[in-house]
Design brief:
The chain is mostly beta strands and 170 residues long. The chain is built from two helices and twelve strands; from the N terminus they run ββββββαββββββα. Strands 1, 2, 3, 6, 7, 8, 9, 10, 11 and 12 form a ten-stranded antiparallel sheet that branches.
Length: 170
Amino acid sequence: MGAKLPSVLVDMNSFFQDESFAGLCNTVALPKIVTKTMDAVMSGVAGDIERDLGRLEKLEAEVTISDYPEKVTDLLGSRESRDEVFTLRGALDRDGVIKTVVVRMQGFWKSAEFNEWAPEKEATMKFAIAVDFFHFEVDGSERIYIDKLNNIFRVNGKDRNKEIRQALAQ
Protein backbone atom coordinates (compact mmCIF):
# COMPACT_ATOMS: atom_id res chain seq x y z
CA MET A 1 0.00 0.00 0.00
CA GLY A 2 1.43 3.38 -1.01
CA ALA A 3 1.74 6.60 0.90
CA LYS A 4 -1.35 8.73 1.38
CA LEU A 5 -1.69 12.46 1.49
CA PRO A 6 -2.48 13.93 4.91
CA SER A 7 -5.96 15.30 5.52
CA VAL A 8 -6.37 19.02 4.93
CA LEU A 9 -9.03 21.29 6.39
CA VAL A 10 -10.02 22.97 3.13
CA ASP A 11 -12.41 25.48 4.68
CA MET A 12 -14.52 26.09 7.75
CA ASN A 13 -17.41 28.11 9.06
CA SER A 14 -18.59 28.88 12.56
CA PHE A 15 -22.00 29.60 14.01
CA PHE A 16 -23.24 31.43 17.11
CA GLN A 17 -26.96 31.11 17.81
CA ASP A 18 -27.37 29.66 14.27
CA GLU A 19 -25.88 32.80 12.71
CA SER A 20 -22.97 32.24 10.34
CA PHE A 21 -19.70 33.96 11.22
CA ALA A 22 -18.06 33.20 7.87
CA GLY A 23 -15.19 35.58 7.30
CA LEU A 24 -15.20 36.75 10.93
CA CYS A 25 -14.17 33.61 12.82
CA ASN A 26 -11.09 32.48 10.95
CA THR A 27 -9.04 30.62 13.58
CA VAL A 28 -9.99 28.31 16.41
CA ALA A 29 -7.74 26.25 18.68
CA LEU A 30 -9.78 23.25 19.81
CA PRO A 31 -9.29 22.07 23.39
CA LYS A 32 -6.51 19.69 24.32
CA ILE A 33 -8.09 16.57 25.81
CA VAL A 34 -6.06 15.14 28.69
CA THR A 35 -7.24 12.40 31.04
CA LYS A 36 -6.47 12.92 34.72
CA THR A 37 -4.03 10.50 36.23
CA MET A 38 -2.29 9.97 39.53
CA ASP A 39 1.13 8.56 40.14
CA ALA A 40 1.12 5.13 41.72
CA VAL A 41 4.29 4.32 43.63
CA MET A 42 4.47 0.57 44.20
CA SER A 43 7.05 -1.68 45.76
CA GLY A 44 8.85 -4.06 43.45
CA VAL A 45 8.13 -1.90 40.40
CA ALA A 46 10.84 -0.06 38.46
CA GLY A 47 9.14 3.33 38.72
CA ASP A 48 5.98 5.32 39.09
CA ILE A 49 2.98 4.26 37.01
CA GLU A 50 0.23 6.63 35.99
CA ARG A 51 -3.29 5.46 36.88
CA ASP A 52 -6.35 6.77 35.09
CA LEU A 53 -8.90 8.45 37.37
CA GLY A 54 -11.80 8.50 34.88
CA ARG A 55 -11.76 12.29 34.85
CA LEU A 56 -10.52 14.98 32.50
CA GLU A 57 -8.24 17.96 32.93
CA LYS A 58 -9.66 21.41 32.14
CA LEU A 59 -10.66 21.88 28.52
CA GLU A 60 -9.97 25.27 26.96
CA ALA A 61 -10.57 26.51 23.44
CA GLU A 62 -9.41 29.75 21.83
CA VAL A 63 -11.47 31.54 19.22
CA THR A 64 -10.24 34.54 17.23
CA ILE A 65 -12.95 36.82 15.86
CA SER A 66 -12.40 39.60 13.35
CA ASP A 67 -14.17 42.86 14.09
CA TYR A 68 -15.92 43.34 17.44
CA PRO A 69 -19.42 41.83 17.04
CA GLU A 70 -21.71 42.65 19.96
CA LYS A 71 -23.20 39.13 19.96
CA VAL A 72 -19.78 37.64 20.69
CA THR A 73 -18.41 40.26 23.09
CA ASP A 74 -21.66 39.92 25.06
CA LEU A 75 -20.63 36.34 25.95
CA LEU A 76 -17.56 37.52 27.86
CA GLY A 77 -17.97 36.80 31.58
CA SER A 78 -21.66 36.02 31.17
CA ARG A 79 -22.93 33.08 33.19
CA GLU A 80 -25.37 32.47 30.34
CA SER A 81 -22.44 31.96 27.94
CA ARG A 82 -22.40 28.28 29.07
CA ASP A 83 -25.80 27.88 27.39
CA GLU A 84 -24.59 29.04 23.98
CA VAL A 85 -23.59 26.35 21.52
CA PHE A 86 -20.61 27.36 19.39
CA THR A 87 -20.61 25.22 16.24
CA LEU A 88 -17.79 24.76 13.77
CA ARG A 89 -18.25 23.06 10.42
CA GLY A 90 -15.33 22.07 8.26
CA ALA A 91 -14.64 20.54 4.87
CA LEU A 92 -11.87 17.98 5.30
CA ASP A 93 -10.07 16.72 2.18
CA ARG A 94 -8.97 13.15 2.81
CA ASP A 95 -7.28 11.69 -0.28
CA GLY A 96 -9.43 13.79 -2.64
CA VAL A 97 -12.69 12.97 -0.85
CA ILE A 98 -14.42 15.78 1.06
CA LYS A 99 -15.65 14.79 4.50
CA THR A 100 -17.72 16.91 6.86
CA VAL A 101 -16.28 17.73 10.28
CA VAL A 102 -18.59 19.20 12.92
CA VAL A 103 -17.52 20.45 16.35
CA ARG A 104 -19.97 21.69 18.97
CA MET A 105 -18.76 23.32 22.17
CA GLN A 106 -20.34 24.96 25.18
CA GLY A 107 -18.64 26.61 28.10
CA PHE A 108 -17.83 29.75 30.00
CA TRP A 109 -16.38 32.54 27.85
CA LYS A 110 -13.82 33.55 30.43
CA SER A 111 -11.42 35.98 28.77
CA ALA A 112 -10.87 38.26 25.80
CA GLU A 113 -7.63 39.60 24.45
CA PHE A 114 -7.42 42.49 22.03
CA ASN A 115 -4.84 41.54 19.46
CA GLU A 116 -2.22 43.93 18.15
CA TRP A 117 -3.47 47.13 16.61
CA ALA A 118 -1.66 48.38 13.53
CA PRO A 119 -2.68 50.25 10.36
CA GLU A 120 -3.92 47.96 7.60
CA LYS A 121 -4.22 44.99 9.99
CA GLU A 122 -7.34 43.06 10.84
CA ALA A 123 -9.13 44.16 14.02
CA THR A 124 -9.38 40.92 16.01
CA MET A 125 -10.15 39.64 19.49
CA LYS A 126 -9.12 36.29 20.94
CA PHE A 127 -11.53 34.64 23.37
CA ALA A 128 -10.79 31.77 25.76
CA ILE A 129 -13.62 29.34 26.50
CA ALA A 130 -13.60 27.01 29.51
CA VAL A 131 -15.27 24.10 27.71
CA ASP A 132 -17.83 21.94 29.56
CA PHE A 133 -19.34 20.24 26.50
CA PHE A 134 -17.39 19.08 23.43
CA HIS A 135 -18.68 17.01 20.50
CA PHE A 136 -16.44 16.13 17.55
CA GLU A 137 -17.75 14.17 14.57
CA VAL A 138 -16.52 13.27 11.09
CA ASP A 139 -19.13 12.53 8.39
CA GLY A 140 -21.80 11.99 11.04
CA SER A 141 -19.66 9.53 13.02
CA GLU A 142 -19.06 10.57 16.62
CA ARG A 143 -15.36 10.53 17.45
CA ILE A 144 -15.29 12.34 20.81
CA TYR A 145 -18.18 13.31 23.07
CA ILE A 146 -17.57 15.02 26.40
CA ASP A 147 -20.30 16.28 28.70
CA LYS A 148 -18.47 17.10 31.91
CA LEU A 149 -21.53 18.09 33.94
CA ASN A 150 -23.19 14.73 33.22
CA ASN A 151 -19.95 12.72 33.61
CA ILE A 152 -20.01 11.45 30.00
CA PHE A 153 -16.79 10.79 28.09
CA ARG A 154 -17.09 8.76 24.88
CA VAL A 155 -14.39 8.03 22.32
CA ASN A 156 -15.46 6.35 19.06
CA GLY A 157 -18.71 5.31 20.77
CA LYS A 158 -16.98 3.71 23.77
CA ASP A 159 -18.31 5.18 27.01
CA ARG A 160 -15.25 5.60 29.22
CA ASN A 161 -17.26 6.57 32.35
CA LYS A 162 -20.29 4.28 32.12
CA GLU A 163 -19.23 2.10 35.07
CA ILE A 164 -18.37 5.15 37.18
CA ARG A 165 -21.83 6.66 36.56
CA GLN A 166 -23.44 3.33 37.41
CA ALA A 167 -21.45 3.11 40.67
CA LEU A 168 -22.62 6.64 41.54
CA ALA A 169 -26.25 5.89 40.58
CA GLN A 170 -26.14 8.61 37.92
